[in-house]
Design a protein that fits this description.
Blueprint (H helix, E strand, L loop, with lengths): L10 H26 L5 E5 L9 E5 H17 L4 E4 L12 E9 L1 H5 L6 E8 L2 E9 L8 E6 L5 E2 L2 E2 L11 E4 L11 E4 L4 H10 L4 E5 L3 H13 L3 E6 L2 E4 L23 E5 L1 H13 L2 H9 L9
Parallel strand pairs: 3-4, 10-11
Antiparallel strand pairs: 1-2, 4-5, 5-6, 6-7, 7-8, 8-9, 12-15, 13-14, 13-15
Length: 308
């Protein structure tokens, strides 16, 4: 499958899709902010297997309400479009044409604890390629909530205005995202951990972070943010057989463990984003990591080890 060229897209439709994505992200953010002012119900997807440990992976009533709102509004305005959302286990019939990919609250653990690093992420794919992204962030470079957004070929915007990256004149040591936790610095930059992959992508696009990398995340964590980074002039690569190559589109895996056909919802992969220089540094380091070590950690259920 090849990535569609911008000329293959109907610009009028693309503008309408972006406008709705921005509107829905803003409404999702409003619902999240309202939820902070009252008591909300919280469930947990993963119970601890060890006595005395708290459960993990919270999902709040706001997560469910925002996704339901997005599904309803998209269904009304674009009834032919498919939707992938974190909280509703539905698989799209096809990846052809438009597919909306929604993370109603990314950073839910932050959200339910009142830690102001969470967001509403809405990406739209065309034949699997990101063409619209809108991420409402509770915290931004402007020190207030706002939406980073773009459509294919438009450049990065913030709250409706073209956005130039955060100025860093005189800053000799930059910062990068280190999802999952890692030592605090490398030779080139210091690390920060936010607890929200979508916010990290938005901050890379905005020039706050130099880079980030993700292994094993879901499509709804990444669909909006990778487009924002590309439209800001950043680089996005993913691991394929034989090494890293430029990322162009999401696709369903060849098989899944369940007794069903794979779908776009099942996508998994390792993606690096950031400036040309930073992506090159991370790509080179990951390429040196011994494959037997990664396989051993996977067999032990430990997941990818992040050392920097």
């Amino acid at each position: 499958m090849t990535s569609p060229e911008p000329t293959a897209l109907d610009e009028e439709t693309l503008r309408a899709v972006e406008a709705l994505a921005i509107e829905l992200a803003r409404e999702g953010g409003r619902q999240a902010m309202d939820g902070l002012a009252r008591e909300i119900s919280i469930d947990y997807k993963t119970e601890s297997k060890e006595d005395g440990q708290a459960p993990r992976d919270p999902v709040s009533e706001i997560d469910r309400a925002v996704e339901a709102m997005v599904r309803e509004r998209v269904g009304e305005q674009f009834p032919g479009h498919d939707i992938i959302g974190e909280e509703v286990e539905l698989h799209p019939d096809t990846i052809e044409d438009y597919v909306w990919v929604v993370d109603p609250v990314d950073g839910t653990a932050n959200f339910v604890n009142g830690y102001p690093l969470f967001c509403v992420s809405i990406g739209v794919l065309y034949n699997g390629a990101p063409v619209v992204g809108a991420i409402w962030c509770a915290s931004t470079h402007a020190l207030h909530p706002g939406i980073y957004h773009a459509r294919r070929g438009s450049g990065l915007h913030f709250d409706g205005e073209p956005f130039a990256q955060v100025p860093t004149n005189g800053v000799q040591r930059r910062i990068s995202a280190a999802p999952g936790g890692s030592p605090g610095r490398t030779q080139r930059w210091d690390h920060r951990v936010t607890g929200s992959a979508a916010i990290e992508l938005a901050f890379v696009a905005a020039g706050i972070f130099q880079s980030a990398w993700f292994g094993g995340l879901k499509i709804w964590d990444l669909a909006a943010g990778v487009l924002l980074i590309e439209e800001a002039g950043g680089r996005v690569v993913h691991r394929r057989a034989g090494g890293f190559e430029p990322f162009t589109h999401f696709e369903a895996p060849s098989e899944v463990s369940d007794d069903r056909e794979p779908s776009l919802r099942d996508w998994r992969g390792l993606i690096i984003v950031g400036t040309e220089e930073a992506v090159g540094v991370i790509e080179e380091r990951l390429s040196r990591r011994p494959s037997w070590f990664a396989r051993l950690r996977g067999a032990l259920g430990l997941g990818p080890r992040r050392r920097w």
